[in-house]
Amino acid sequence: MTYEDPWYDALASGWGGLDGTGRPAVAVPPARGEPDAAGTRARDVYVEVQRSQAFQEVRGRYRRFVVPGTAAFLVWYVGYVVAATTAPGLMARPVAGAVNVAMVAGLGQFLTTFLLTWAYSRHARLRRDRAALDLRWDTQELARGAQGGAL
Amino acid sequence: MTGDHQALALLLFSGFVAVTLGITTWVSRRRRGSAEEFYAGGRLFTPMENGFAIAGDYMSAASFLGISGLIALYGYDGLLYGVGFLVAWLVVLFLVAELVRNCGRFTLADVVAARMSERPVRIAAGTSSVVVSVLYLVAQMVGAGSLVALLLGRTSGAAQVWAVIGVGALMVIYVSLGGMRATTWIQIVKAVLLLGGTVVLTVLVLVRFHGDVDRLLLTAAERSGHGRAFLAPGLKYGGDWTARLDFISLGLALVLGTAGLPHILSRFYTVPTARAARRSVVWSIGLIGSFYLMTIVLGFGAAALVGPQAVRASNAAGNTAVPLLALDVGGGAGSTGGTVLFAVVAAVAFATILAVVAGITLASSASVAHDLYASLRRPRGGAPRGEVAVARWAAVGVGVVAIALGLLARDLNVAFLVGLAFAVAASANLPALLYSLFWRGFTTRGAVWAVYGGLVPAIGLVLLSPVVSGSPDSLFPGVDFQYFPLENPGVVSIPLGFLAGWLGTVTSDEVADEGRYAETEVRSLTGAGAA
């Protein structure tokens, strides 16, 4: 299946949307459900999915990219701001022509932002999207089952 | 500035208003009045449309005129703003956009309240969202007033008052009649206009220097009177250690605040899936990044072609650098090209303010109706149709408050107000949002403390800062209750927000519900059951 299919987005938007009476359509119980039996059973479904191998894998892939990535760009940005305010001498050192260290660092921030954006979106597309989508359908099937098939 | 500029600028701007009012009428004719429609535009925008709309929401007149003006006056130090505004989007892309799209329905509070005992959390998150929105809104209104006065050459108080009232009235019409769908289209139209205008000016500046950026920079440095120092940091923020710490504080607020801005978060609900939310952020990073790169060229171009002296003579804060540059690259004062370009830039700047203001008003009316009203008046919830009616009136109420505050705060510095809104968003909204998405043990008390523990110090420190009292430039120069030296509270209040959330969680008796956290985690990463 390709993710560019228009039905993929269109179908997904229907889940949990409003039905004709303005109430949320019951696909999966709302996040802030009352503590009734069906809600508890549905929540067990989420615990079950959370403990499953497939979900742990998706979460692991997400965190293994996002945690080091966030740490890296925050350190690089804070370092840049601190250097710009506390070490103007270093930043003013010429590199070539009118370009100095500060210019290179500033444009470097732009460049790394674009690169990280590209890397994140590629990683998510290739390593996460498909598994997450499968999990989404499975979870919704399970949740519907837990509600006694009420729709 | 002659009458020709003003007449043409007014004409173009009236054209923009007519087109956007047309969009609003056309959209509201087909409205169904559901909450989904009003807050989220039916959730059927494409990633590209939403990416342009996000860029339109984010690129305010403060960046268009303010950053290039700062560069024209202080050189490199102005560029630091643009970097912070852009890098902030990585926080949004990595940690917030997809997960928020999957977990929430309309507002920030939806995400935080999903795991918690709902009412106190919703009231806290709703309150801080409204505070952030109103601060940001006042900044834009003040900007609108001074912009009109500057560009139309009428510096009288009456012109400013009428500009603020006019902008406020228009935004209330857009939002309460058209909801998210009209607001989104206005953002898209505005983003295209703004980017188009910026591209034309950038190309003209580069053509003037035959594509030689090196010569552009050297000419700017030479004309500034500072020489090479103009191209390095330190001219504006290089004073004593307080000024430097203040800038670090601002830098932190800029990079962490974007992910807590309610009007940005609500944009992710206008697309159908988390994947579409991610792709809209990728679009917006591309657009916003290119825009800030071009403002750098415009800023140094204004320094090289117009000169800091002429810029400062027109407006001490540098806000008129770009219009003056347009006049110059168009062929100079009195020429047809100069007149047309000047008018275009002025009209685009008005359009920018109008669109940004509409986006924020919509987000804050959603917080008032969906979070505050729904929790305070009707704890059991109710028909969405009733809530939408409240939201429409809330837009009117927010508009009136913003007009009143905008008139009161007329003399405050716009960049300071924007920095403050970012600081409050980073201190109050971001900790609660990140903890509830990523921390298994986070509790209701932790969420409430995280919001108020960031909000109260942020506002309190500003009240005790030199902005309010104790210096000749402050709001109340006559009295002195200044105990906090920095203008931007971020460096203190952001850690306090995170600390308060942690403290509230470890001291509460409540044990975090495993099942609810499992639900949040599974929903956030897979999109199961997403609205």
Automatic annotation (TrEMBL), chain A:
UniProt xrefs under Pfam families: DUF485
Transmembrane segments: 65-83, 95-120
Full protein name: Uncharacterized membrane protein (DUF485 family)
Sorted UniProt keywords: Membrane, Transmembrane, Transmembrane helix
Domain of life: Bacteria
From TrEMBL, chain B:
Membrane topology: Multi-pass membrane protein
GO molecular function: acetate transmembrane transporter activity; symporter activity
Organism ancestry: Bacteria, Bacillati, Actinomycetota, Actinomycetes, Kitasatosporales
Family: Belongs to the sodium:solute symporter (SSF) (TC 2.A.21) family.
Protein name (database record): Cation/acetate symporter
Compartments in which it is found: Cell membrane
InterPro entries: Na/Glc_symporter_sf (IPR038377), Na/solute_symporter (IPR001734), Sodium:Solute_Symporter (IPR050277)
Listed transmembrane segments: 6-27, 52-73, 79-100, 121-139, 159-177, 189-209, 247-269, 281-306, 340-369, 390-408, 414-435, 447-468
Superkingdom of the organism of origin: Bacteria
Main location per the UniProt record: membrane
GO BP annotations, alphabetical order: plasma membrane acetate transport
Keywords on record: Cell membrane, Membrane, Symport, Transmembrane, Transmembrane helix, Transport
One GO cellular component term: plasma membrane
